[in-house]
Amino acid sequence: MNNPMESAEFSRNPYPLLAALRAGGPVQRVRTGKDRTTWVVTGWAEARAALADRRLSKDTARYFADRPSGRDLAPAVSRSMLATDPPDHGRLRKLAMTAFTPAAVSRLEPRIREIAEGLATALAGTAQAAGGGPVDLVEGFAAPLPITVICELLAVPDPDRAAVRRWSDDLFAAADPDTADRASHALAGYLTELIAARRAAPGDDVLSGLIAARDAGDRLSEPELVSLAVLLVVAGHETTANLIGNGLLALLRDDALRARLRDDAGLLPAAVEEFLRFDAPVTLATFRYATEPFDLGGARIEAGDVVMVSPGGANRDPARFDEPDAVRLDRPAPGGHVSFGHGPHHCLGAPLARAEARIAFAVLLARFPALRLATDGRDASDGPDGVSWRRTRLMRGPARLPALLGPIA
Ligand code: HEM
């Protein structure tokens, strides 16, 4: 039987299916696994509870130890903090945090703005060369911005950035597991060499900071450093590209919202939170594995069960959000979404992702005040110039956003 969560329709609009699941209960058994019971959590309260519950493990390597062919993470990432439980998790996270602080991110902001301005200038050039015709805001802006920022964080030299982006893309999107495995090994191999070079000649980049990071005499080992560097690339690239792409689509589909944000940049932080809620970049799920039996949202989870917590489902739960399917900047408590997870594994890169998105929207709206979709937001299935969607298993965002820049400010 075809899995509806892997259909093109689900990539285009997953919300009817997530709502139908939620209507049956906030925690639903689904038949995605061949031999293990798998649950999907689409209720907001239940998602928060699951994300913070210690009886649910993130240790993919342990869980899949008996099934070398069944894995949901690249080998290098499966040893990172994302895939570890206490006490290792706390240790890895604390060490990484000493270099990856909100202050380190805010120091990066001027450089993020410079990169975004450079991309906007290149977009204008492309549009001019095409006689004012449409440009693709994903390929020309939403996708290159985050990977360039991460490469700067890790001090990846310019000529190597295209390869880093390709490996990272293949890790997620490759149709066959062999290509994904090759990309994972290539990326880990490359970052191992980069770490050796930085160790020999430290700079003021975040990677050098991570190499030097100490916590009461403790340091990151070589494999831990490589895993962390791979994690930063893969966790921060497609996710943030999807946030910018989804947010752009939401604001390009709404003329009044676009005008408000263009005229008052002070609204951008609230808009970024609402875009995160409205279209979670990690839409379908983050995974957990039950270590003991327990009850969740009326369901009996058994030890060994897989629990998929769906940010896209939780963020549209009407029990938590009024008019969940509308973009509204006047929500009483902006945020409250679980797009960055919740609890001990809450996204370490959230301040960076928020800054990138805020700057991306500010730059585009200031440079192209008359920016609009080339096709009135049509889907690609409606015509050749329409919006089309990336097809990856867990994430969602536009693959193409054809837009007309209009006169340049
Ligand atoms: C963890 C989403 C950007 C680094 C997570 C988790 C989510 C998430 C849902 C938790 C996974 C779980 O609990 O199972 C996102 C989204 C982003 C984004 C939607 C962009 C909009 C970034 C960036 C970086 C980053 C830019 C760094 C460069 C991490 C790391 C973790 C993480 C290191 C693991 C934290 C831990 O296990 O303690 N992210 N992320 N993320 N994210 Fe992000």
The sequence of SSEs as H and E is HHEEHEHHHEHHHHHHHHHEEEEHHEEEE
**Structure summary, number of beta strands:** 12
In round numbers, the mean pLDDT is 89
| Low-confidence spans | none
Category from helices, strands and their pairing: alpha+beta
Q: Which distinct ligands sit in these coordinates?
A: protoporphyrin IX containing FE
GO molecular function, one term: heme binding
Pfam families: p450
Protein name: Cytochrome
Family: Belongs to the cytochrome P450 family.
Q: How would you portray this structure in words?
A:
The protein has 409 residues and is α+β, with helices and mostly antiparallel strands. The chain has a single domain (4-404), classed as Cytochrome p450. The protein is built from 17 helices and twelve strands. The strands form four sheets. Strands 1-2-8-5-3 form a five-stranded mixed β-sheet. Helix 13 (238-252) packs across helix 15 (268-278) and helix 15 (268-278) packs across helix 17 (350-367). It is globular. It starts with 7 loop residues before the first helix and ends in a 5-residue tail after the last strand. The model has no long low-confidence stretch (mean pLDDT 89). The structure holds protoporphyrin IX containing FE (HEM). Residues 51, 81-82, 93, 150, 231-232, 235-236, 239-240, 243, 281-282, 286, 339-341, 345, 347-349, 352-353 line the site of protoporphyrin IX containing FE.
